[in-house]
Specification:
With 224 residues, this protein is of the alpha/beta class. 43% of the residues lie in helices and 20% in strands. It is built from eight helices and seven strands; from the N terminus they run H-H-H-E-H-E-H-E-H-E-H-E-H-E-E. A seven-stranded mixed beta sheet has the order 3-2-1-4-5-7-6, sandwiched between helices.
Length: 224
């Protein structure tokens, strides 16, 4: 997990953020609120990096995203970013279990004028995803982003495959896991779970896949 892209020197990262991306006042305010919040500051690394947010903004515009599914919200930076990129006609379904951290998200979504676009569902994500499939939402999303508990990544991916339309994209965050996936001595449960989903998606003929070394590693899988 990383709030900035791996492997970049401080000077290169500063340059990238100066001329290689744009972050507006609403996004910056949310990042700063996450960093300074007494109960989230130690977990601020869970937030996507601003350069990854800019990359997701570009993807939204390229794909023409109007319906976005987010599995794992934290303090709401990625949902805010995508909602703004889609414009007022875009719709976000955001899944999480934390009342505390999503309260930060709600506050900043409201300030940014995107709260009405975001349907936040507080429940175990697999329960919400199963209900969505039963309720006829198959093939209805343009873009899904998975950034939640690693042990369920493969299950989240399978649900996203069902819910994203052909030609839509699934993003999976933290796929490099700060380099731990390449360490043969690291057998922690989360590391093994990420390795499993990485290998599964790589071999999945239902998608065209690319792993991008931005943030903590972002896999993009386009549903065929």
């Amino acid at each position: 997990m990383s709030s900035s892209s791996m492997g970049l020197s401080d000077s290169v990262l500063k340059y990238l953020r100066t001329v290689g991306m744009r972050e507006d006042a609403d996004q910056l305010a949310l990042r700063e609120a996450t960093t300074t919040h007494p109960n989230s500051s130690n977990m601020a690394m869970m937030q996507i990096s601003p350069e990854q947010g800019q990359f997701m903004t570009l993807l939204v515009e390229l794909i023409g995203v109007k319906r976005y599914l987010e599995i794992g919200v934290f303090t709401g930076y990625s949902a805010l970013t995508v909602a703004k990129a889609m414009g007022p006609k875009g719709h976000v379904v955001a899944l999480d279990v934390s009342e505390e951290f999503t309260a930060i998200a709600r506050e900043h979504w409201q300030k940014a004028g995107v709260a009405e676009q975001i349907d936040l569902r507080l429940a175990p994500a697999l329960d919400s995803l199963n209900k969505m499939q039963k309720d006829g939402e198959l093939n209805s999303f343009d873009f899904a982003f998975i950034d939640a508990d690693k042990g369920n990544y493969k299950a989240y991916y399978e649900a996203a495959i069902a819910l994203v339309r052909p030609g839509g994209v699934i993003g999976i965050d933290n796929v490099l896991w700060n380099g731990s996936v390449a360490d043969p001595m690291d057998h922690r449960a989360d590391t093994e779970a990420i390795r499993e989903v990485n290998e599964f998606v790589y071999s999945d003929e239902r998608v065209t896949v690319s792993m991008v070394p931005i943030g903590d590693g972002l896999t993009l899988a386009r549903k065929r």
